[in-house]
Amino acid sequence: MKVRVDVMLKTGVLDPQGEAVRHALGNLGFEGVEKVRQGKVIELDVAEGTSEAQIKDMCEKLLANTVIENYAIQVL
Amino acid sequence: MKVRVDVMLKTGVLDPQGEAVRHALGNLGFEGVEKVRQGKVIELDVAEGTSEAQIKDMCEKLLANTVIENYAIQVL
């Protein structure tokens, strides 16, 4: 079973990495890039029958820092 | 206009970060996690009318290392 977890910084949390990308795009001549946020994707191959609650538990305990990050689980 | 770019390591390219996550999940007692791949998501706010070709150009030039990474563009 394939599961995809997206982890993004919460709104309002500064994202220096995204800001660096925005700046670099501007330097490369790409205009009109107003905002960039960078996050991570984690693709997991888990055993059939793994519950969404278990995946959520993985996110809370390891994959995301829930103080500053939101996560979204998607079963593929 | 919101655009989302997913950047993942190509199949066959070693992913030590994903491997570390897999290992850590095992140590936390989560069983049945067979494989983990980690990539990044970049969310861009670009000016209306930015063409997909321009976004592709951004990926090729900055967002992805096309030697080892694949990217996928999604206009939201």
From TrEMBL, chains A, B:
Its EC number is 6.3.5.3. The keyword Ribonucleoprotein does not apply. Keywords: ATP-binding, Cytoplasm, Ligase, Nucleotide-binding, Purine biosynthesis. GO terms for cellular component: cytoplasm. InterPro entries: PurS (IPR003850), PurS-like_sf (IPR036604). Pathway: Purine metabolism; IMP biosynthesis via de novo pathway; 5-amino-1-(5-phospho-D-ribosyl)imidazole from N(2)-formyl-N(1)-(5-phospho-D-ribosyl)glycinamide: step 1/2. Gene3D superfamilies: Phosphoribosylformylglycinamidine synthase subunit PurS (3.30.1280.10). GO terms for molecular function: ATP binding; phosphoribosylformylglycinamidine synthase activity. Pfam families: PurS. It comes from the Bacteria. One of its GO terms (biological process) is 'de novo' IMP biosynthetic process. It is an enzyme of class 6 (ligase). It is found in: Cytoplasm. It catalyses: N(2)-formyl-N(1)-(5-phospho-beta-D-ribosyl)glycinamide + L-glutamine + ATP + H2O = 2-formamido-N(1)-(5-O-phospho-beta-D-ribosyl)acetamidine + L-glutamate + ADP + phosphate + H(+). Belongs to the PurS family. Part of the FGAM synthase complex composed of 1 PurL, 1 PurQ and 2 PurS subunits. Part of the phosphoribosylformylglycinamidine synthase complex involved in the purines biosynthetic pathway. Catalyzes the ATP-dependent conversion of formylglycinamide ribonucleotide (FGAR) and glutamine to yield formylglycinamidine ribonucleotide (FGAM) and glutamate. The FGAM synthase complex is composed of three subunits. PurQ produces an ammonia molecule by converting glutamine to glutamate. PurL transfers the ammonia molecule to FGAR to form FGAM in an ATP-dependent manner. This is Phosphoribosylformylglycinamidine synthase subunit PurS. It comes from Aliiroseovarius halocynthiae. The gene is purS.
